[in-house]
Structures are given as structure tokens and as C-alpha cells.
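re: ur question from earlier - yeah i can do the single chain one, its not a big deal. heres the input i used so u can compare w yours
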Amino acid sequence: MRHTWWSWHAWVAGGLALSLVGAVVLARLELNVLREAFETDARIVHRLLSQRVLQHDAVLATLALLQPASGTTPDAAPEQRLPALYPQMLSVKRLAPGATWGEPALDQAHARSSASHRPELANAELAQGRYRLVMAAPPSGHTLLIDAKAMVPWDDWPMDVATSPVAVWLVHAEQRLVLQPGSPAAATPSEHGWTYVFHKRLAADSQPFDVVAQRHVGWAELPWPGILAWLVLVWAAVLGAVQVQRQRAGRQRAEALLRLDQVARLNTLGELAAGMAHELNQPLTAVLANTQAARRLLAEDPPELEVARNAMHQAAEQARRAADVLGRLRRSIERPDQQRTTKAIDLGAAIDRALYLLEPESTRRQVVITRDTPLGVTAWADPVALDQIIHNLLMNALQALERVPTSERTLRLVTTLHGGEASLQVIDSGPGIAPDDLARLFEPFFSTREGGLGLGLSLSESLAHGMGGRLAAAAHAPRGAAFTLVLPTGPQTA
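and the output i got, formated as C-alpha cells:
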């Protein structure tokens, strides 16, 4: 029973561990796929926006090289056609030679551009979605007013702006322009789940904007169908393995019971043959003695009684032959326990073996079994004989418990050491044993159960005596019976 309990719990623990590991692996694989997709899309976004801001630098650099002819008015200059070519360029202005922009931010950016020889950011109004670039080209200069959101190449955008869970912003200082809103969790991720963040500055130094992308993965996005399929597969395998183990345990239990039954049959046959030989040997011996005496008397009578003498001679020969046959029968089926080897056996382990074999019987009868079997209670006995005795006692108790209500079926096993003896008590809450029956309980062929042969307890007592022990029965208050098996703890002197 302990072995079965441990096997079942071991399979359950293994199934739980395998389920957990598989679920974690599947979730981790899915999270890796989502992370890789997020990082790929974020890198594409950064590259597209970097190409656009570099384009702005190139336009300003080209304007610086292409100075308009003298006398050309700003409105008639070629750069005024740029907004038609580049929708993100809201306006292009040219500074007249020797003049100033008249705005501190533009004048300061113009001075920085004169020193760095590259476009400079005049001011960024990302909250309104626009910013200005200034390029100094002495004796004049140019400024671009750019629509930050219009510069996004939506045709090449790697994500669906309306449905993508990824939020994308363009960030400068404390300002932020939302290019893609993403899911609500992406903007304000919770503590439950996983958050991926991409943060990288654009490639143009003149437009020091950071591209920030953020993605939040919640528990609902884990691959639950795959995890569920894995759990079903694991537990189907566990249940299959448990079923196979139960079938194997049942087959082993049946084989063990068959072997025990065969030993019991042999021992019973030995008891019967020994009793039969004992009972028949005396009359056969008397027949033999009488026929021999008759033959001697007839030999002293007149010789005409030859026929009678021959008849007596044949009777004597047949009687001797019958005695020889019975003697050979007894020797051939001599009880095997007389030839077995005894050794030290742990009574708790022997009880485990018997309970394991009788587990289906006790489960079917719904018997509550309690044990008080401490370690170290060792008896000197023959293993097979001891197993047979315990099996007989437990089986008798289970059969007796069938005659009481299910809720009252209890069986208690107690092992103790006292002096040089070890004892095992089998106490049941059955109907008990009548006082008149108690005295005859160990007689061969006496049984209190309908259909019983009355040989189990008789054989068990014989086996116990053969090992130097004893078996006793008594009533147990308030109801039931107690069988006590006492065995020596060491070898006995003949």
C-alpha cells in the first residue's frame, strides 16, 4: 500500500513538474518571438525617420550651394517650390544678405550654423508637431519649417497604426510627439506582464530627436492554446503510465497471490496427507500383525490348509504394500516449512507486502486500516510461512468486516517487542467470535464462515509452531476479534 501511494504521488509530482516546465518553455518561446518582432519593427521605424531627417539636411546644404541671382525676390526664389515636392516642408525662407531673422531663436541658430557649417535646430514645438531648421550660407541663409508628423513615410511603415499594440513617440527634451498610439497598456504598462522598450537617437545631429517605441505583453497574449495542448498531452501520458503501472502492479499482485495460494494448497495437502497417513497407518499395521500371526498359526496346522496360508500371505503382502504406499505419499508431500530456512524478518515489511496484495480487497470493502508498527520489530521466521500467516489473518478479518456496516469497518495492526519475542496483533471491528467457537477455532475443518474450509487458521497455527512461535485468538471489546502472532526474535535451540 505504501509502495502504491508513493508511486501515484511520484507520477503526480512528475506530471506537475513537466507541465510547469513545458508551460514556461512555451511562454518563453512566444515572448521571444514577440520581442524579436518588436525590435525588428522599431529598428525599421528608426531607419525610416533617420532617412527623412538626413534628407532635410541635404536639402538645406543644396540650398546653401545654390545662391539665387541678385535681384531675385524671396517669393520668386526656386526654394519656394520645395513644399510641393516635400509635403513635410511647410515653408522655406531665405535671409537677405546683411539682414537678420528678427527672431532670437533663429538668429542664435544662424550663428551656430555659421560656426558648425551645418544645419541647426532653431526651435522644436513637438507638442504642435513642428520644428525649424536654420542653415547659414553667407552672405544669406535659409530656414525650413517642418511638419514632424508629415515626415513619417507611412507607406513604408512596418506596423498598422490603428491596430498595432506598439506605441511610438518622437522625443526631444521634455516634449513628445505621438506617432503611433499603440495599446493603452503600451503607454502605461502595468506590473503584470512584460514590457519591451526601444530608445535610439536619429542619425542627423541637426535634429537630435529620440525614437522611443514601447510594447507591453499581458498574460492574455501568452500561447494558452499551445499550453493547454501541452498539459493535455502530459496528463494523458501520466494517466497512461499510471494505468500501465496499475496493470503491472495488479498482475504482480495476482502472481504473488497465486504463489501464496499454491504454497497454502501444498501445506494444506501436507496436513491432509499427514493426517490420513497417521489415521490409516494404525489399522494397516494391525492388519499386517494379525495376518502375520494367522500365517504362523496356519503354518503349525496340518499342511492341508495350504490354500488358506497362501491367502493370508497375500493379505499380508497387500497390507504391507498399502503401508509402503502411504509412507511414500507422506514423504513426497512432507510439509515444506520443515525444510525452509528461517531468518530475521522485519514485521513492518511483511505487513506491507500483505497489505499490498490485499489492497483491492480492502478498498472494495472500504475498510479503514490503521497501523502501529514501529521500525525495528524483527522476528525470526520463514519468509513464505510468515507471509502466509499474515495473509490468512488479514483475509479472515476482511471477510469478517463484511458483516458490519461500512462506516464501522476498521482494522488495526500492532507490532511490539517484549523480551525475546516479537508479536503482531490483528484487531478488527467485526462481529466477533462466539465463546463456544473460540475454543475450536484452530481445529482443522472448523469454520464460522459459510462455505469456509476451516483449514486457514489450523494451517497458520501449525506454521507458527513450526517456527517456534504461537498463534492465539481472543474477543476484543467492545466488538470484534484480536489475533496475536508471537514469534521468537532469534534462532531457537532444538
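The domain at 252-334 is CATH 1.10.287.130 (Helix Hairpins). not sure if urs matches, ping me
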